[in-house]
Amino acid sequence: MTTTMRAVDPMIAELDQEAQATRRMLERVPADKLAWRPHPKSMTLGQLALHVATVCGSVGNFLEMDSFDVDDADFNPAEPASKDEILQRFEEEQANARAKLEAMDNDRATADWILTKGGDPLWTVPRIGLARNLMFNHLYHHRGQLSVYLRLLDVPVPVTYGRTADENPFG
Fold first, then answer.
1. pLDDT tens profile 68-88
2. For the chain, what percentages of helix, strand and coil (3-state, to nearest 5) are there?
3. Backbone phi, psi, residue 140, to 5°
4. pLDDT tens digits, residue range 115-144?
């Protein structure tokens, strides 16, 4: 039996793989430092960790839409009540993101998705490009920020793709 790979199948594998590194990073977040921020303009540790925990699932919801208007967005990051909330939301949102990707056939994955502002198009991209840019690249950007927050708090930074100054899986 020959199985044809769908356009989203590599992304599902990537989501599963990256979930391990993201979970390790979120598990290191000190529960007593959620209100800490490195700079007045920065998100708090809790806000950033919750954003990292939920970004894939949030973008997964966009995959079901044909467009989204930024005027409808709330860009104020939520403040979690606890580290347990962050970890629970991570598990829920990973499952949501995976389900949204699983549901996409090739026609849907390659169909245009449009970002608008006040109804005016800002960005048109194949839906799979939305997943790459706003789901994955966005996650990597903020997960990198989270690793810096951990370093500034003197929390051992976990392995992401290879050794860190604190962990060496190859040694």
1. 999 998 889 999 999 999 999
2. 55, 10, 35
3. -65, -40
4. 999 999 999 999 999 999 988 999 999 999
DSSP single-letter state for residue 137:
I
Q: Quote the tokens at residue 169.
A: 């899986």
Measured distance CA(147)–CA(155) in Å, rounded = 9
Q: Please, are residues 169 and 159 in contact by the beta-carbon 8 Å criterion?
A: yes
pTM above 0.90, yes or no: yes
How does DSSP classify residue 167? -
